[in-house]
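Weekly structure sync, notes
Attendees: PL (lead), two postdocs, one rotation student
Agenda item 3: pending single-chain targets
PL asked that the sequence for the first pending target be pasted directly into the notes so everyone works from the same version. It is reproduced below exactly as submitted, 498 residues in total.
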Amino acid sequence: MKGEGLVISEDHHSLEDFWEHIQANDSIKISSSLQTRVTKNRAYLEERLSSKKEALYGINTGFGSLCNVEIPQKDLSQLQHNLVVSHACGLGDLVPLEVVKLIVSLKINNLSQGYSGVRLELIKKLIELFNADVYPVIYQLGSLGASGDLAPLAHMSLPLLGIGEVHYKGKIQSAKEVLARLNINPIELSFKEGLALLNGTQFSLAYGIHSIVHSRRIISLANKIAALSLIAFGCKTDPFHPSLQRIRKHEGQITVAREIFELLEESKSEKGKYSVQDPYSFRCIPQVHGASLMAIEHAADIFENEMNAVTDNPNVLDQEDLVLIGGNFHAQVLALPLDYLAIALSELGSISERRSFQLINGDRELPSYLAEDPGLDSGFMICQYTAASIASQNKQFCTPASIDSIVSSKGQEDHVSMAANAGTKLYKVVENVYRLLAIEWMISCQALEFRENIQLCPALDNMYKNYRNIIPPLKEDRYLSPDITKTIKFLKSIDIGH
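Predicted structure, written out during the meeting:
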């Protein structure tokens, strides 16, 4: 049963608004003031269409390069139906369910702003399906990130018509059958409505929001895991001193260094025993992690602005007596930070892999590969191989999608953003960085087993002890893949505030 939660209103919504309500399985409502705005906006479009003989793109014309083909009044509903079914050409892997929920909620928010010319009935039907836990099956491939995320949003729209497949009660089922079982009637689209559903950046944006939430968790984890690695490797604390950060001035660097410096200062360890200067992967953590932190927050600002924006076409501005045909669906503004965020996260994974490499090298009185009996045992040798493979794959995923474009629709749509590809690649980078951090955490915890006279600060000690309740130290070689999987699950589940 859904709880009361997300109210779509005229207020500015934060990324957390949507994410937290989706995680809580809350219902969606639209405020009375927005309902009034949507109703007035639709009434204006109906009046304009009946009183003026004019071609309005996608309302009484064809789509894309067919924009100059006028459609008779009697066929306007069929035009919208045809748009949705013809554009549902998605392929590839299924979009994860939590991203699907974001897509639908973002589309509801977009249409509810009262600039899309749709009936309130359409928005209420989207809400009805969402609140009944009926979620569309959407595929990852099919959007060029311009003209809207067309194919994915077409799949999002199919269940409104009683077509396609849905996620319901943990299974993929026929939309027609599920709606019949729940006594929910499909809707017949009216003019402009299919176009309003398909135009927009909600697919790309949902991947961005999902990745921001996880990026903030990842940066917090990366700082804590790096702190344990610093302790296990016997590193100096000078690189984290506040005065050093003050003269560089970058806020991200200052924030990261402060967090790690506090963890190191509160721990008792052999600080700086082994070398005058530590390797870059330890010494330059504030500079590298800090740059990624600033990239994360920069992307978050853009995604939050887009979440509160209107991104379909044409836009109906009833108070100004305007129907404007433009390009608010073009997702270049998302494509660039989606690529940027993937690079920033990949660097967190890359420097993590280097710390793993240093810890198993047999330096600083640590045994080779952190094995109890190196030679007989290989210890964590191949964990680092796995990390190197993942770090390398991330570099391949970071080839920018936003610099690509391909002509479509007979040249009418001749520059596209590829934001959707940027978003789905970013999703893979996020998962890979969790894997890399899990391997570093396993290795740094094992390295700690060979140190004496170390007392961890409460935050790290609590994290370490909870982990050791799940994964014991490596005394002799064992099957490690399950350990890595459990470690990933552990890192995704812990409270990053502690």
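Discussion points:
- Residues 3-199 form a domain with the Fumarase C; Chain B, domain 1 fold (CATH 1.10.275.10).
- The longest helix spans residues 202-232.
Action: rotation student to compare against the earlier draft before next sync.
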